[in-house]
Amino acid sequence: MQNLTGEIELVSIATVFLLLITLAPIAFVLMHQRQYMRYLQDKEQMKNLYQRELLQSQIEIQNQTLQQVANDLHDNVGQLLTVVVMRLNALEDEVAEPTQQAAVLQTRDLVRTVIADVRTLSKTLDHDTVRRFGLLPSLTLELERIQRTGRIQAELSTLGEPYILGEQVEIVLLRMTQESLNNALKHAQAKNLHVLADFKSDSFILTISDDGRGFSVQKATARQLDEAGSGLTNLYRRATLLGGTCVITSQPGAGTRVDIRMPRSQ
């Protein structure tokens, strides 16, 4: 009987030992995989953090540059144009010929229009405008400036109850809109521009569309470095790094649509 008990104990010990030998490598592999996954997660987090900091630096540099341009437009160009108007006022009194007076008046009106456009442009370039008045008034200002050129119809519409998205997000959205509108003005030969701000309960969607000649998105994104512009890449990257998405839909002859979706921060 004692011999049987001893054999059972021996078999049990051997079984446990074999199990330990079998499970140890599996546990080691699982532990290694877990550490590797944690390493990959940490690496991805560091990469995202680096890219966000890089984007933040780029945004700050861009804002400082545009701020300087806005100040120069307002303080230097605006003041010079005001001096031109004063000179034209004096010239109006000096000329007696009706035809010349009419020419002076037309020129003065044209310069006043330029002054108004310069002031509007300086405001849309100034990020302080977004901070003080918000995204929708800034978009309105931008589209009114385009509308005054008389070459294109520009319209802003909204859906839902407007809410604040945060200063940085709104500045980036304004810059993305300006970039999309500039692309439409420079390349699309569009006659109509439409910006739609859709305030949903869980997300904000900004859509910029035009009825221009369109382009192949696939070909544009596949261009070589020396042929490619940075516009589309900037739109994709900025949306992604702010936690959103950007979808560009276009084809030759069918206009272009840019959909930017941002999650609503609670």
Describe the protein.
There is one protein chain. A five-stranded mixed beta sheet has the order 1-2-3-5-4, covered by helices on one side. It has seven helices and five strands; from the N terminus they run H-H-H-H-E-H-E-E-H-H-E-E. 67% of the residues lie in helices and 14% in strands. It is elongated. The chain has 266 residues and is an alpha+beta fold. Helix 4 (135-147) runs parallel beside helix 5 (167-188) and helix 5 runs antiparallel to helix 7.
Query: What does the oligomeric state look like here?
Result: single chain
The backbone outline, from C-alpha atoms, is: elongated
Mean pLDDT: 84
Q: What is the number of strand segments?
A: 5
Strand order in the largest sheet: 1-2-3-5-4
Structural class: alpha+beta
Distance between the termini: 73 Å
Largest sheet: 5 strands, mixed
Helical fraction: 55-70%
Beta-strand level of the residues, as a percent range?
5-15%
Report the order of strands and helices.
HHHHEHEEHHEE
Report low-confidence residues grouped into runs of 5 or more. Answer: none
Query: Mind telling me the C-alpha Rg?
Result: 31 Å
User: So how many helices?
Assistant: 7
